[in-house]
Amino acid sequence: MDHAFSARDWQPTKPPEPGEEDISSKLPGLISLLNHQTRCIYDKPYQPRFWYDRAKTLTALRYPELAAGDAQKAIKLCSDALDQEHRARSDELIRRVNRGFARFSQVRREEIKACNGASPDEGAPFCVLRRYAFGNGARDGQDGSDVLGVFAAMDIPKGTPILVDPSETWGCIGPGSKRRSTGNPHDGRGCTDPIHPNLPSENTSQDLRWIRERTGSAAADVLLRCRFLIHSIRDQVPHPLSHPLIARLTPTYRQEKTNLFSLDHDIVVPNECLQQFGIDIFADPAYDTWVLFTLAARIENNSWSDPVHKCVSPLFSLFNHSCAPNVDWTIGRDHTTLWVRSSREVTRGEQLFVMYDHFLLGQPLSERRKRLRRWLDADCQCSLCVQEEKEEGRLRGERNKCDCGCSGCNKEVQTSLWDVEKKPVFPEDSYRVERRGERE
């Protein structure tokens, strides 16, 4: 938001309401004002007025979720309970950012490294990550070089374990302290692991159980976002979106889907988690509100879940989807590890595809495409869907040719004998007519 952008690139998240003023002519001024207010916040992050002013501008630009985040920070700055330690940039923060800049190039190189599943006999990887997964042309508005895919590095027999992919970016719904409540939909039958949602390596100051208790049925989703933020802090990257676990994820901003917004779950809890791990949410622009929503969009498009857990697997998330996959995946007993196996023979250089939703196997084209809108912002264009779409179009054309009613199409169409012969009359028919006449 600190850089100017063209009015043509303006894509508000809130649709206009009936009777609302058209702001098209005001866009250049509002965009310029937004840039100015953002720079003011960077210069003086503890001035509540700056956050409040930018919230008003974001509201005018129809970004209510970003406006809510700025307004919440303005309220927090006005509170007498704000700790004094959050009003200054610490020396450790400066050192952490500088260390992140020093190793940033190495981190970027790791984003496109080969997958680490290896053959026990040969020690060679089964698969590698490559650019131009679907050719040199653009795909869904992306340059071909930005479209990544996982390819077989050797001939792979059917049923071969290709990858075991553990993850530390996950969340879970807890059993909850209140049974039969809206925040505890499983009635105490959530994750019962005594350590979760914490990791064995974490100490008491890093306890995240408060998030699970506070967010109830949304805990798995909120905890997953917080896990990514914690990773970016621990690994000392200059910006969370440049972290290799996050930068590799492709977001999908579904224009046709209305996303529910929660001030507590989407903004307040992640901000409190950032403060728990030492981030100054007012002075550090790397953790601005728009970053939280960009992170959420990347997670939503690359996560998998069961009724209790939600997880992003670092290598599995790089596999592209097909309704005719050549790779199967199963969830391990720990609910945070995925096992990936070939479902048929795969030749070297062939792209490896998974099916995002196992329940779609065998479903018709329309049902598959409808369900896949959870991950895709357009109809699935895998080879199977394209083939079935062409076949449906061909059959539809043949039906239209026979049923159009023109003399040319129906010139040699024979009518069935049932249509021209006299219809039989049963005794029951006359009885029903008489009875109906009596009632009338």
TrEMBL record:
SET domain mapped to chain residues: 125-357
Ranges where the record places region Disordered: 1-24, 176-203
Gene3D superfamilies for the chain: SET domain
GO cellular component entries: nucleus
Domain of life: Eukaryota
Name the record gives this protein: SET domain-containing protein
Organism: Hortaea werneckii (Black yeast)
